[in-house]
Amino acid sequence: MTFTRSMLAANVAVYPCWLHYHAILVQPGRIADRNPLAGPFIRRHAQPRGRALNIDAHAPLHLLHQTAVGTLATHARQPHGYPYPSLLPFAPDAQHRPTILISRLAEHTHNLHADPRAGFLVAHAPDGDVLNGPRATLLGAFEQVAPEPAVVQRYLRYHPDAERYLVLGDFTFWVMTLERLRYIGGFGTMGWLDADDLDPLDPLDFDEECELIGRFGRNPRRGALELLGIDRYGMDLKRDNARERYMFESAQLDIESLGASLDDCIERHWQ
After folding, report:
1. Does some domain include residue 150?
2. N or C: where does the chain have the smaller number of CB atoms within 10 Å of the terminal CB?
3. Where are the beta strands (DSSP E) in 130-222?
4. Residue 84 and residue 75 in contact, taking contact as beta carbons nearer than 8 Å
5. In a domain, 129, yes or no
6. Coil vs helix vs strand at 245
7. What tens digit of pLDDT does each residue of 36-50 get?
């Protein structure tokens, strides 16, 4: 079907955001504090097995690092089988998987023990327009994990107030193993991705991330900027209690290039 000028005008009239979502904006090394479609990671290209339209895996990956809260949907025990949604804070782990800290007494915790399969919804709409903002529904299973230093320290960087819950001894960490996800970036930008499509690269190990966080902390030019986490695609930052995602122009494959990107972030955006 040929896309005519009149069809274009009709789409713009009905969907004012149509042109925005079909623009290709390449702005490397910028902060994504609003719609992540304005970043360098949305590229129009053919997707494997026809699952997605106009997206690549970096879009949902960055989205998982932009928001602090998600909706966990477990299977209710009573009444049996019904969806049971819970609003929860979370932190992405080194593989971008949602990590949650939940009470043993909570209903959703009992539900996960009975059936670990769950959905997890994340959305980023700082202006309140959730229908035009990006969102992703993750499908998979949650597993309880031990409170090892890598888990605890990373989670507390993202949610420092959670330390009071750890003191109680009643809360446990759970990590989601992803099966598939459905991403919607706006009109004409949506589709399914398998877990393997999200990030094919090996994650940073705990010692590497600690080294980079220490390097960031020693930089006198960072000011009040805090580094919450770093991965091969970007950095999670906090300033004035607001979280921001700094996206790299391309994946950084070694710790030397990550360190250089870290320094570049400070020099280019936080002087």
Report:
1. yes
2. N
3. 135-145, 171-186, 189-194
4. yes
5. yes
6. strand
7. 333 333 333 334 444
